[in-house]
Structures are given as structure tokens and as C-alpha cells.
Amino acid sequence: MVALVAGALLLTGCSEGGGGGGEQEGGGGATAQEPVPFAGAKASTGPAEPIPGAEAGGTIRVLQRDSYAHLDPAQIYVADEGKLAALIHRRLTTVKMDNDGDYSVVGDLATDSGTRSDDGRTWTYTLKDGIRFEDGSPITSADIRHTFERLFADFVTEGPAFVQSWMADDPDYRDLLPGGPYDGDHLPDSVLETPDDKTVVFHFEKPQNDLPYALGMPGYGVVSRSKDTREKYDRDPLASGPYRVQSFKPGKSMSLVRNPEWDARTDPARHQYPEKFEITFNHQYEDSSKRLLSDTGENQRATSFNNSVDASTVPQVTRDEAAKARTVSGYQTYVAMYAINMDRIKDHKVRQAIAHALPIKSVLAPYGGSAGGELAGGVISPLLPGHEKGYDPFGKLKKPGGDPAKARELLKEAGQEDRKLVFAFRNDDESQQEAVAVTDALREAGFDVQRKELPTDTFYDRIGKVDNGYDLYRSNWGHDWVSASTVIPPLFDGRKIADGASNYPHVDDEKINSEIDRISGIADPEKAATEWFELSKYIIEDVTPVVPVYFYKQMQISGSKIGGAVYNNDLSGIDPNKLYVKK
Amino acid sequence: MLRFLVRRSLGALVILLIISALTFFLFYSIPRDPALLACGKNCTPEALEVVRRNMGIDQPVPAQYWEYMTGILLGRDYAVGPCPAPCLGYSFVDNTPVWETILDRFPTTVSLAVGGAAVFLTVGLATGMLAAARRGTVVDKVLSSGSLVLSSMQIYFVGPLAIALFVYQLGWLSQPRYVELTEDPAGWFAGLLLPWCVLSIIFTANYTRMARSTMIEQLQEDHVRTARAKGMARRTVFFRHAWRGSLIPIVTIFGVDLGSLFGGAMITEFTFTLPGLGRLAVESVTNTNLPMLMGVMLFAATAIILCNIVVDAVYALIDPRVRLA
Amino acid sequence: MTIPTTPGREAAGPAPAAPGDGPFLSVTDLRVRFTTEDGPVRAVDGLSFTLERGRTLGIVGESGSGKSVTSLAILGLHDPRTTTVSGRIRLGGREVTGARERDLERLRGNTMSMIFQDPLTALSPYHTIGRQIAEPYRKHTGASKRAARERAVEMLAKVGIPRPRLRAGDYPHQFSGGMRQRAMIAMALVCDPGLLIADEPTTALDVTVQAQILDLLGELQQESGTAIVLITHDLGVVAGAADNILVMYAGRAVERGSAAEVLGAPRHPYTWGLLRSTPDLDSDPDEPLRPIPGTPPSLLAPPPGCPFHPRCAFPPRVAGGPGRCSAERPELPEGRGAACHLTADQQRAGWSAEAGRAGATGSASVPVPADGGADLLRKEGDR
């Protein structure tokens, strides 16, 4: 849904596929991914399946690079906070990964993943018994109502906007409840109904078949109605998950301790093994990797929720069997691609020439090579249903260094030899290395490349402008949940071209637009997944607004006294809920 | 003494006012809207207005400055939370009053600075004085050239090497980290030992050289010769008569060094992942966290000025010819 | 004077000795050589003299003639790594040369002590006057802090510092120049040393204060019988204060005699030059002073023969021809005499001619008030 900005990994939806532990590589097993199923009451009942060999007690040290910017669930969108939210905030649904590595959407606070009616326009949820906030107060439908109503307040700007937009049937959703619930106004029953303490009913104008996925986003975590302090809640939220925040010093440290009000019997997906999580921030990847690799002293009981093994440490880790056994790895949600500005490069042959010329292997190299990603042929992630392994329309997997001869040929056919090409890239170290390789390859293919170096932190602002003045620029995208509906419409819907919007290539193709509308109406996830992938083929092959480069992967490492380390595709990394301290 | 303190404090206040005004107007004149950064991705014009109002940046800059300065004395109340006096502003990036974060980071910085300073001062003075006492001998040459070699080392080079060797490889020292002194004194010491030593590497050489040269200079002073002519023992001459005078240039530099260390030892803090003020300042720059940056800068400036006042007072203690007024 | 003397101190203190008790200090063939980057420097080259208790020896010479080097050698203050000292120095019957550092420390400030030229730099700016005076006293007598402080106050009173108890707590910078030199003297005499070396003690002071300081030294000497080596480049200073005079040139003694002899009938052409270049109350103010032509010789490469010969006008008159002066080193005879190849008669006649030329009366007048110094002292002390 949102472009990947340097430094902040965006949270992801869920996915299927063998997201195993140990050295097992998550993802790429199947040729076409199955959708993550919506589970019923049985799978939604706690307690969670115990982790074999897990022991309770102990403290886990967590080395994180970035501090948490938000603790209010309504403001949580990025992956760092998403993982934290998995420990402290519960929501109506969540994605459960069982001990076999299978994923399903289960009821979290709700008894199941939701009852669909009215062709997906109405969804009904019933709350479980025994669910409480950390202050001991029970979680009721009034809290759920409040949780959704406060999303309309002006101060909530960071979290996801899907459910609000669906409620309002309008991307500018705030007019539905201006200022939120704080002036005594509420959403009408025609939108959100809470007939009793236990029942929550959503009503939408259009069918919303992805609702159980969306409600599992950390951004829809429950907020206490009586303890809501608006802006200040971001600093001091009330926990509903197995852990609560004992202390938080932004930029420095956070302590998570067990939440005694959390009842394991109500929770199908979470555990409460360690006594405490001691999180410290500002550990660059290199620092955390070296500490964890050394496995000395306190580092034995340490891990990182979000830090990857840094590119320079990867070879050491892969050479050392014992160290490698302490790693988990798998796909992240992002797909790296190069966007071609369709307003400026109107000739399809020229776009194809770019596609053939790009040296995707050199693009990936600065990010750790195969540990940092897997070369891509398409824009649909291996984590998404419908993904076809080995899809490679331009033969780039066979020629990852680029095919300048083919590119030259295409340019000649188009009569555009020495075509001028304005190439914009970020000025961080990795991007500069990448840009050098890309520039060389494009020049070899016969382009007259003009380089534009942009500051990393405003890169997306600059390329997000409709008249940005560039021809070619990197853009990344990650799905919000395991459906291509969170990939293709935001990226390629021609009706959504605007400043700051995510249609970076400014593609506006009638067939794409109409197909988006058609496939969005398909209720069967499996059928929809297949159709989305077919559409993605058309986009890449017949329009070529982007050139896919690689699927993000990451490898994480933990100390030797950390047990239960597994890669969770839904969380795009190690699953904090399954960790324990080995005695 | 009292007059001195009053005068210097007033002077310091004026300097701080100038610094605060400069930084304030400078920061708020940069072409970046902190509200837009804080507003986030679902920002609407209304939401932006709310953020601007919450941040207090909907007013003209002079009015904001006035609010800022009165806030330091009286405290302020932001929509996102209270900011009790001394309110050095509110960090919207991490939702805390700036002062709270500075207070939280300061003990780390003080521990690092004071411990490091203790190491480099002791080692530097000891080696420098030894070199001076053994001037021209092998000892002198080894110490002098050794300090030169050390001073050419850089923290970002020595630090990771030292960690790799002493922590990861040999396991002699514990992982550098900061724990509160009051919480776990042994852990505090163990966690900071390596940072202290590495931090002091670059400083020690300076102090060795300075102690050596000022000591040699002092040993040639007439009054030192007088002391010898009075029959004072070498040791007495060295430590009672010559040493005192050699302190003055050292105290001057030490005051500057310590003051800037109180403002944060950025490279050391980054190298050892210690949550001090230096790191806070750098983070604030990268996050465009202007209130925090402003607060840290003012705090660091205050530290340096205070250290200067203390240095001047110490001059008077060392040298009775210096009058405090 | 009511002096609370420290027990044990009286017995050790030297009794005022009558002149002629035998030499208290004897220096024999003293040679001091510095090692420098450019080569060895013979700062003192074969110097011998003796000094009795209660007497004052004036050592006179231009700067670089080896006066101060001699005094530091007596105290054993030269850096052994860069300086070679040979010859014999005996003090009160004890050998000083070759003594261990610890033994020297016991002598310094106790049996022999020293006053330096500039009391401002020679006193430590970091300690009170009282403490600086008390310091050697404590060291050498083992007195308590309190007793040492009392002694310091007593000494300050003795050298004429008003309100000594109060001033003992002051720092040197709070004293005037003359007062500082008095404090310096108090410090040097705090242990009643047998020998006091005063190295240019009045050079940094006003002319009036100079006289007071010299008077004070004289008074104290009368009282205690201390032997004084008075080092100066100023003949006027030695004129009133010294019993005997030793003139030094290029590290050697070139003339020796009683003050009256040396000043009244100098024998060495160098001494003549010195006297000629000293202002004289009796001389015609319009008569220009005549400095000695040329510059003092380099001690790195001293001239062969008589070191003064390059600046001397008399080699042509020397028996044996001018070549003798640059070839043969003239010896200084025992007792009264000069190290010069001119015959004794030539030497006597030479000065008369010189003095006549200068219009001088033949004896140097010294601007030292015989008495009345005490009044001046008081004024000085009150400020």
C-alpha cells in the first residue's frame, strides 16, 4: 500500500507458504500460492498451541535499530511497531501461524474471523469472554466502537485507512464523523452497530470481502474507551495483549513485562513465555549482527525483532553452521521495481528496452545479494496467493546482468537511438552503488542517461509529484494483506494519478482500470488471486509501466539461548510471540 | 566569589539568550515544515492545522520564541501532553517533553564523560609527568611517541576493534552498555569500562603531551629552582612546586573538553550504542526533530558555559594571582 | 628580639664567627662544563677562592662570566646529565662536590642558601610567603607546622616586614619588589645558614631599595656571622658590601683582593674597563662612560692564552710581545693579584693612567648611605 521509505519497513498483511523456522526458507515452495483461509470458532479459541520445548521465564534482550514512534494502535503502520503491537495490542482478528507453519485468519478478540452476510456488505463479530485491558477492565463492544470512531479524529494520521474508507465509501472518509467521537457524536447504526456488549456489526455500501484481513492489521488494535487520552494515548496506551509497556524511553529503551490481565485461554495466537523483553534502540544492523553472531554473555539471550543480518555479516553467518542454525529467513512483503514515467516515455518499445537493459543482479547486490532479496520477474510477491514461481516475461532471471543487445535492438526499432533518459535515485550509499550499475547498463544499451541524485528522505515526495520531470526511478511496494488487491489497484489504477499517490509510473490504461473494477468484485479469494495475477501479466508485458527487480528477503539471527525463533510471513520476520529463553 | 558567580551567571544567561535566539530563528527558518513531517501519511489540511496548532507553530516566529522562553520558566501544556518547567519544548517525534528526554540521556553522557575524563586525565597526567621527570630518557621517548601514535587512532576505528577483541573474541570485558549507577554499580562500571578507555585514547595523548611540556616548562621556572635551593626533595619540588603551575593550561583545556563531552560524545556513543546526548543530537538531526535538537544544543551550550565558569573558579584556586571578579 | 627558637636549633646554629676563623667555604679549581648541542661549554674554568665566616666575598663580572654558574655549583643545583662539575668545594669542613643528592638536600637551605635576582619569579606564586619561609625550616629542623609558621613570622619581622603575622598569609604578588626581596632573604636565612649566596640580589630593584637590601644583609650578617657570596655585575654594589672581591672573566678569576684594593687600585685591564664603565658620582657628568670594547668571548671556543686579549689594549706593552697574551695563559697569583702578563708595576701604573684619563679620583665612590637606611626601610615596609 505504501512505498517503502528508507529506514521504515512497512507492516504487511499476511500470507501463506512455508514460513518455517531454522534455516528453512519461507515462501517459495509452491508454484502458485493458496490464499490464507478465514478460520472459524474452533481455530479461534485459546490457548495457543504450545511451542515444543518452550519454557516460561527469563528476560529476552531485543536489539532494535529504530525507536518506536507510536504506541497508539490507530497510529501504527510500520513493521517495527507492528511487531510490538503483536505483543501488546489485540484486535478483532489476527493471523495465526501454527507450529506447522500454516497460516489462517482467526478471531482474536472476536470468537471467529467474522460472519459474512449481504454479499460481503455486512460482517458480524461476537466478542469472547474474559478479554480485558491491562487495568482489568473488560473489553466490550463499546470499546470496539470507540476504537473505530476515533480513527476519524484529526490527530489520527498514521494508521491504515481501509476500513474507514469502506465505511464512508469514500477515500475522504473523515466527513463521516468529523472530529471523531469526542464531541458525543457516533457512527450511525447503518455503518457500525453494537446492539449489545458482545456484538459488533459492520455495514458497508460495497462488498468488502477482505475485511477479516484488514481487521487483523495492528492499526485496528483495540483502544479503551474510558482510558482514551487522545493524542496522549500514543505515549501511554492500555495493553490488551500478553505484555504491557513497563517503561518507554524513546530512542533509548523499552521494557515489556507480562500483562497479568491477559488470559491465555482467550488467545489462539499468542504466548507469554518470557518474563520480560528488554528492548534497546539504535543498534545499527551491523552492531546487532555482530553482537548476536558473537553469542557472548548477555548476547546469548538476545535477538532482534526487526533488524536483519547486515550485508557485511551475511558471509560469516552462512559459513558458520552453528551460527546459521540460529538464523531465520524469509520473504518480506516488498517488491522492488523501477517505475518508468509513462507521461514522458510513451513508446512501449523504449520501455521494453529499459526492461531488458536493467541489470537486476547489480541492483540487488548492495543490499546483500541473495540474503537481501530474490530476483523477480513479476510484481506479485511470492507471499501472495496467485504468485507463479519462475514467471519471467523479459528473461531477466536468465540474464540478470541485463541484455544490452536486445535493448539496443528495441531502441533501433523504435527509432529512438540515443534516447535521453532522466534517471532519479536516492543519495544513500546503497542507492548510489545501485545507480552506478544502472547508469552503466543503460548507457551500454544506448540511452543518453542523465543522473539526478535526490535526498533519501524526500525521495518519495519528489517522485510522487505528477510532473516530477524524471523518466526512471526506483519504487517499492508491499502488500497490506495477502491479496493482490492491495498491490495492483494502488499502483496501476489510472484514475488515481495524483500528487503523492502511489501510481508512480502514471499508467492510465483502460483495460487495467476496468479489470481492477471487475476483479475487486470477485468474492472467491482463490479466483480473485488467479485473476489478479493474469492482470499483472498484462500490465508487465503489454504496458510495462514498471520493471520488477527483486522480492525483498531478510535473514535474522538470535542468541543461542533463544528458543522458538521462527520466521512469520505475516510479520515479515521473527515472531516475537513464539520466543522463549532456554534454560 | 559571590560577585564572581553572579557576574558570570548573568553573562552566561546573556550568551544563552543569544544562542537560543539564533538557533530558534535559524531552525524555524529552514524550508521544511515540521508539522508536515509530524502529520503523517493520511494528512489532510484540517489535520495539518491541528498539528500546527498542537506544535504551536501556527504563530509568528517571535511569538513562538516568546512562548518558548516563558515555557522554560513556567512550563507549557501541549495537546499531546504537559511539559512542566523547565520546558525546553516538546518532541513530537517521540511524544515527550524535550527536557524529560535530555534528563534521561544525561546520566549516560555524564557517566561517559566523567569516567572517560578520569581515565584520560589520570593516565595523561601520569605519563606526561613521568616523561617530564625522565626527560630525554628512553621512558620519555616511549611515552611521547606512544602518545602520538595513540592520538592518531580514531574512536570509530579502535572502538569496534576493541569490542571485537575484548568482548567477542576474548570475552574479558562485558558488552558495553549503560545501566544506571544507582541500579547496579558493578554493571555500570563493567558496561562503561571499554567506552571509557576508548574515549580516553584520543584525549590521553593530548594530556600526556601537554603535561610533559608544561611540566618541563615549570621545572625551569625560577621559583622551582628556589625550592631546590631551599633543600626540598625532588619529589616535593615536582609535586608541590612545579606541578601546580603546570595545571593551569591543563585545566583550561580540560574545561573545554569536559564541557563538550557533557554535550555528548557522539562518536563514542554511536560506536558503543550508548544512549547519550550526542546520539540524541544526531538522531534529532536525522529525524528533523527540531525541538529536541534545539533543547540539546541549549543544554550543551549551558554545559560548556558552566564548565568555563568552573574552570575560571578553579584558576583562582590554583593561582592566587587570579582574582575572581 | 624575642625569638622563640626551636629546641635543638641553637646548638646547631653557627655562632657568630670572628673573621679569620679559617675558611668556611673553600673552592678549589672548580670547573663547570655544560654539554650542549654545539659542543662543551666551559662556563667555569679553574676557579679557586675561600671565604671565612662573617665575611662577604663579592664576585664581579659581566653576564656570562660564570658567576651564577659558580653559585649553582656550590649548591649542587646543576643538572648532572648536562653538566660536569669538577674540582673541590668544601663547606664548613664538609665536601660538597660528589656528595649524594640527599646529603646535598640537607645542606641546601640549611647550611647554605641562596637569594636570587628577581624575587617575583624566584618566589612561588602559588604559596603564601609564610608557607614558603616555613617550608625549609620544617624540612631541616623537623619543626611542627605551627612552630614553622611562628618562625616564618619571626623571620619576616626580622627582615623588617611590618605586621608580619598578617603578611605571612599573603602571596608574593601582594608584596612590593623590595618586600619580596626581604621575604626572600627571610626564607634564605630561616635556618641560620653558614653561607648565603646572593646572586644579583638588588639588580631588579630600585636604587633606593637596593641600598636598603644591602644594609639589611649587612645587619643580618653582623648578627649571625653568616658568610656571604655577593654576586653582581655592579661594582657599586660590592663597593659598600664586600670585604673581598673576585673579578671573573670568561669563567676564570682574573683579579682578587680586598674591596679597597680592587676598587682603589685595580690591576687587571678588564677591571679597569669595568670601573670605567661604572657611573661615578665624582666624575664629570659630561664625560661619557666608556664601555669595554668588543663582546665577551664565546665559551664554546674561548680565545687561547689570556681570554681577555682580544678586547685588551695592552698586549703590545707586555714583556715578551703581544703574542704572549694569545699564547700563554696568565695565572692568578695567591692573595692579592691579577691574572695578567703585565708586570705588577705596569698594572699599578696602568690604572693611574686610566683613572687620569677618565678624570676619576682613583677610588670608586659607592652610592650607599652609611646609615639612615633604617628609616628608608620603614617607609618601604609601610606601603
From TrEMBL, chain B:
Q: Where are the transmembrane segments?
A: 12-30, 110-133, 145-168, 188-208, 247-272, 292-318
Where does this protein reside within or beyond the cell?
Cell membrane
Principal location: membrane
> Does the record carry Cell membrane as a key word?
yes
Checking SUPFAM superfamilies in the record gives: MetI-like
| Tagged with keyword Transmembrane | yes
Q: Where in this chain does the record put each ABC transmembrane type-1 domain?
A: 106-315
Instruction: Report the membrane topology from the UniProt record.
Output: Multi-pass membrane protein
What keyword terms does UniProt attach to this protein? Cell membrane, Membrane, Transmembrane, Transmembrane helix, Transport
Q: Which protein family is named in the record?
A: Belongs to the binding-protein-dependent transport system permease family.
Protein name in the entry = ABC transporter permease
Q: Which organism is it from?
A: Streptomyces zingiberis
